[in-house]
Amino acid sequence: MSLYAREMLKETSGSSSVPLRAYLARTAAMQMPGLLPIAPRYIERTVVQIAEAPGFGPNDTPGIKDDPQLLIDVVMRRRKWMLLGETGMGKTSSLLHIARTMAERALTMPRNALIPIYVELKHYCGETTLAQLLVAALRTFSVHAPAETQLLSDAGAHIVYAGLAQPDTRFLILLDGLDEIRPEHQDRFQSILNTVLNSRHHVIIGTGDDGLDDMSRGDMPIFTLEPFGFQEIRTFLDHTLPGDGDCFYNRHLLRNRRLAALAVNPLMLSLMSALMQSRPNTHLSTSNARLFHQYIMQVIRGAADEKLRMGVSPRATLSLLGRIGFEMQERQCVIANVDIVREWRGIPAGNRLDASLNQAMRWGLLKPGVEHAVEFAHPFFLQYFAALQLHAELHRGADYARLIGSRLLNKRWANAIALLAGVMDQASGLIRWLAGALRCPEREISAISPEIREPATPPRAQADLLREWGERLRDSVARVLAQVGPPAVDELVAVLGDEDPNARWRAVEVLGRIGNSTVAASLMLSLRDSNLWVRKSAVNALGQVGDPCAIEPLTALSRNPSEYYLRQDADAALVRLSRPAAKPTNRILEAVNAGAQMDVDFVEDLERIGGTRYPPQHASA
Question: Residue 519: which H helix or E strand, with range?
Answer without folding.
Answer: none
